[in-house]
Amino acid sequence: MSIGPEASITDERSAPTDDPAVERALEEKAIAGRSLRQIAWRRLKGDKVALAGGIVVLVLVFIAILAPVLTKLFGHPIGEFHGDKIDPTLGTPIGPWGGISREFLLGVEPVSGRDIFSRIVYGAQTSLSVAFLSAFLSTVLGVIFGLSAGYLGGWVDAVISRIMDFLLAFPQLLFAIALVSVLPDSMLGLGDRWSRVLVLVGVIGFFGWPYIGRIVRGQTLSLREREFVEAAKSLGARSPRILGRELLPNLAAPILVYTTLIIPTNILTEAALSFLGVGIPPPNPSWGGMLSDAVNFYRYDPMYMIVPGGMIFITVLAFNLFGDGLRDALDPKAR
Amino acid sequence: MLTYLIRRAVNAVLTLLVVTLVTFGIFFMVPKITGSDPALLYIGKTADAASVEGIRTKLGLADPVIVQYGKFLKGLVAGRDYANGNDVTHCPAPCMGYSFKTDQEVFPLLMGDLPVTLSLALGAAVLWVLIGVSTGVISALRRGSLLDRAVMTGALAGVSLPIYFTGLLALSIFVYWLGWLPNADYTSFFVNPLSWASGLILPWVTLAFLFAATYARLTRANMLETLGEDYIRTARAKGLGERTVIGKHALRSGLTPLVTVFGLDLGALLGGAVLTEAVFNLRGLGYQALTAIRGNDLPVIIGVTLIAAFFIVFINLIVDVLYGFIDPRVRLG
């Protein structure tokens, strides 16, 4: 899904990949007795850049999970004001580099003096949970609709394809902003932070499914006609078995790759919505929200903009590197 | 060819119709969910009950949804009259109603913002196509070289950088620190072409950098795929010069898929480059949309969404037509 960043709606990722089953057959001739998973893992291990991306991703996940611990050890509570770290006349942090010191690892916020390190760490929690959950939602919807369209064909395919075309031709960002801004702040008994996370997951995940759906549909269309499906049919297998046991395993590789690759897009979208003021509501920390606050201060305190912006960049880059590597490992012809 | 064109055009109109339906439906539901009264939004909270009812009748807000939608569609096509007894206001086609906040007619209001978005999107598009496609082609031709790796590293960084970060960085470096450029600002091209360009150069470059990165990656991947095709080998084998092989054979099919992507991207931007306009404070369609959303100004929100959808659908129609000429296979499909 690409409703967030004003980047290309379709990039090279959405180009249909080659049939993974063909790929596997070729490989098996070359290296006897290795499964696709083993081959892919060997290739991935050789790809240093992709591995580095993967490690950064893991570190970020740990940071997000351990946010309360990290804050306790190295930071200050996210809502705590530190007026003594702020120049009373200018409102900017005292000291060079936005007030970075041993006590405040990434400096303090202008005016309020809140600890940026703690807010970044908690921001990782929000950012990653929105990105992962919405990617999961897109994948589930995309696989269900893509499989149905590709396998059943006929009017089901026509309807689903039309819906996908429609969603892709929809002013998504505008719509997401409008939708998120009118939904209630808290619901289901969750606080405003997690209910807004749910809303974001719903909106981002919903607009993302056609990207997965199109790929799954295309792959299913070509797999459906192959001999092993015919064999299963002639043995009397019913549609659910063919879908679940014959087709789905062959779709695992592209699904995994494209799910990995929509995560960075989702991170950018969440940050964009928070930047525009309709994402995670303040005072809850989010990277996009911090960037939005930084708009008023970046001329006098550039670090306050660079830290969250840099975090977004590093996170998205790491996911992109890992996703590209995964794609190359599972499907070398796509490169 | 003609049936192909007609089919695409009908398709486009149908898509737009669905967009109006969905947009109208959702935003009609919004006041119900949030418990606000559109008539009150329009007239202000201090009004007495009689004038609120007057407005309700005049705007037709008491009608069933389907009737309101019908009137809305009629207004778009033929214009409509808002009437409450003798008090009649005519809204000429394409009528999108009146802003709740400023009482202005929505369509002319949005048309006033269009030149800003149009200048921003088209200027950036020229830059990103030139830069992205040329670096992509060169990278593909010199695959594995230092240049290729440098370009691809840059491009990967580019696709990972959001405009709301690069925009702020560009502003702080080039405007406030080095002072090389004026702050982003829109002056009409017809008033002063020079300040039009100088006021937009920073948004153009920042926006183009983002897209150029994607296009370079895409172009490179497509070109590499094409260069591996049998017919390229055939062309080389029959003794054609490298210039002809690349220029006449590879480029055409290597770059054709880009037309689709370009259409989608440009269409999406023309409906309002929300983030870019927000970062650089440019008063275009996207900025208007944000203001309307923050102010709960439903008619303007619906209007911007429709115009944005129109651009996406319209540009895609053009792309489809172009494809009919570029790629003969499409006509049969």
UniProtKB/TrEMBL annotation, chain A:
One Pfam family from the record: OppC_N
Biological process terms in GO annotation: transmembrane transport
Protein name: Peptide ABC transporter permease
The keyword Amino-acid biosynthesis is assigned to this record: no
Record family assignment: Belongs to the binding-protein-dependent transport system permease family.
UniProt organism field: Actinoplanes nipponensis
PANTHER family: D,D-DIPEPTIDE TRANSPORT SYSTEM PERMEASE PROTEIN DDPC-RELATED, OLIGOPEPTIDE TRANSPORT SYSTEM PERMEASE PROTEIN APPC
Locations listed in the record: Cell membrane
CDD domains attached to this UniProt entry: TM_PBP2 (cd06261)
Segments crossing the lipid bilayer: 49-70, 130-154, 166-184, 196-216, 255-282, 302-323
Membrane topology: Multi-pass membrane protein
Organism taxonomic ancestry: Bacteria, Bacillati, Actinomycetota, Actinomycetes, Micromonosporales
Protein keywords: Cell membrane, Membrane, Transmembrane, Transmembrane helix, Transport
GO cellular component term of the entry, any: plasma membrane
Domain ABC transmembrane type-1, chain residue ranges per copy: 124-323
Major subcellular location class: membrane
Automatic annotation (TrEMBL), chain B:
Keywords assigned by UniProt, alphabetized: Cell membrane, Membrane, Transmembrane, Transmembrane helix, Transport
Pfam families linked to this entry: BPD_transp_1, BPD_transp_1_N
GO biological process: transmembrane transport
UniProt superkingdom: Bacteria
InterPro entries named in the record: BPD_transp_1_N, MetI-like, MetI-like_sf
Domain ABC transmembrane type-1: 114-323
Transmembrane segments: 12-30, 118-141, 153-176, 196-216, 258-280, 300-326
Gene3D superfamilies: MetI-like (1.10.3720.10)
Name of the protein in its database record: ABC transporter permease
